[in-house]
Design brief:
Shape: globular
Distance between the termini: 50 Å
Largest sheet: 3 strands, mixed
Number of helices: 2
Number of strands: 3
Structural class: alpha+beta
């Protein structure tokens, strides 16, 4: 059987409220768990099994699908014109 290799592009994401929470996650994964972030992304990392995880906040441009939700409206995230 061939050895399983991590995929370079497939990933899953976690959305947090703001840059402060991204910084908190980044600090925990690097200092507490000893994982490395994957530049040039703000907070992408690989878990111990090689899965890429991306952490973004509600102001990321990819929130188009979230616009109807109240939490998004509270922080003022808007669709680009």
């Amino acid at each position: 059987m061939d050895e399983i290799q991590p995929d370079r592009w497939k990933h899953f994401g976690i959305m947090v409220r703001d840059e402060d929470q991204i910084a908190e996650v980044r600090e925990k994964i690097t200092k507490k768990y000893g994982l490395k972030t994957e530049p040039p992304f703000r907070c992408d990392f690989r878990d111990p099994w090689g899965n890429r995880i991306q952490v973004v906040d509600l102001h990321d441009e990819s929130v188009v699908w979230l616009e109807p939700y109240q939490e998004v409206q509270k922080v003022g995230a808007k669709l680009p014109d």
